[in-house]
Amino acid sequence: MVPTLRDIIQEKGLEFTSRHLQRGSLEVRNAHAHSATQEIGYWHHFNPVLTSDKSTRGFQHPECGRLLCPALYDWVDPAYDTHHCLRWALAHLPL
To answer: Residue 15 — pLDDT band, cuts 50, 70, 90?
Structure first.
């Protein structure tokens, strides 16, 4: 017989059960994000072409940067130089 969630909570405790459910949720989310980042080059034809070099992806890539840019900012407005500011922040600010 397969135990139900109620059985597991009664046997192992609520804290143990919730910790394992949270860890499973994070692992699935991470696996999904990883597979999505590997496939994105097939969903959209980027110009210039995306390479496997991470230093040329994200905000460092002109088209990716435009797509990733928060809606509050204008990626191409020279008055704000948004692309330069975001690239600088990613390189110099602690995450």
So the answer is: very high
